[in-house]
Write a structure and sequence with these properties.
Layout (H helix, E strand, L loop, with lengths): L1 E3 L17 H11 L4 E5 H5 L10 H9 L7 E6 L18 E5 L5 H10 L2 E4 L7 H12 L4 E3 L3 H9 L5 E7 L24 E11 L2 E11 L4
Parallel strand pairs: 1-7, 2-3, 2-6, 3-4, 4-5
Antiparallel strand pairs: 7-9, 8-9
Length: 224
């Protein structure tokens, strides 16, 4: 995740959601080149021409050298069924697309998705059962390493479920403000510090005006 100095990942109205440098974008592709699958929330995917692919040819070659498939699996999370079948991600068929959703999506939406996605998994009535969903991805699609690129609601749910091992965070030299602007981990949140996700800084590096940090997740209210 890339965030501003005040912890925002987009403006309050969502108009600005990309403010990282070219080096930050390259770092994103480097991370994708290590993952079997890339996962993103529906609102993030629908907000722009986001394809969730491995990027330029050099990163695809890097994946092959690492004995990974040239193109990663693409996973989209849409708990309410808000993802339109016309989204740009469905227009490029270079790798399979899987949608994780709930019963709230409805049969009509599931039928539309079935026409554009390779598989749709209903894994929850009102909220997505992420432990079940990730276990299914491992068994059905052989996903060993999953890269999640937000947004904040999805990240918050994964942290709350204790399913995050590592956080790659780029701190960018901007300040957006706004009480409704999204952060890297939104959702319900916690009321006690004892329940907060604990992080351990593994490494950091300053490049230009940005600070690249890697954190190990130690606990989320319990040992992970």
């Amino acid at each position: 995740m890339a965030m501003t100095a005040d912890g925002k990942i987009a403006t309050a109205n969502g108009a600005v959601a990309s403010f990282g440098s070219a080096r930050d974008r390259a770092h994103l592709y480097e991370l994708r080149a290590t993952a079997d699958a890339v996962m993103c929330g529906a609102r993030t995917v629908a907000a722009g021409p986001i394809l969730l692919g491995p990027g330029p040819a050099k990163y695809r070659r890097l994946r092959v050298r690492r004995r990974l498939a040239e193109y990663n699996l693409r996973v989209i999370v849409s708990g309410t069924g808000s993802l339109p079948a016309s989204a740009a991600v469905f227009q490029k068929r270079f790798s399979p697309i899987v949608i994780l959703t709930t019963e709230r999506a409805g049969l009509a939406t599931l039928r539309r998705w079935a026409q554009v996605a390779d598989e749709v998994l209903v894994c929850g009535r009102r909220e997505i059962d992420f432990p079940r969903a990730l276990a299914w991805l491992r068994k059905r699609w052989q996903v060993r390493r999953l890269l999640c690129e937000g947004g904040g609601e999805l990240n918050g749910a994964l942290f709350a479920a204790g399913l995050v091992n590592e956080l790659h965070l780029t701190i960018c030299p901007w300040l957006l403000g706004g009480r409704h602007a999204p952060t890297i981990a939104d959702g319900v949140g916690v009321e006690r510090l004892a329940d907060a996700t604990q992080l351990e800084l593994k490494r950091r590096r300053r490049i230009g005006a940005e600070l690249f940090c890697v954190y190990k997740v130690r606990a989320a209210g319990h040992e992970t």
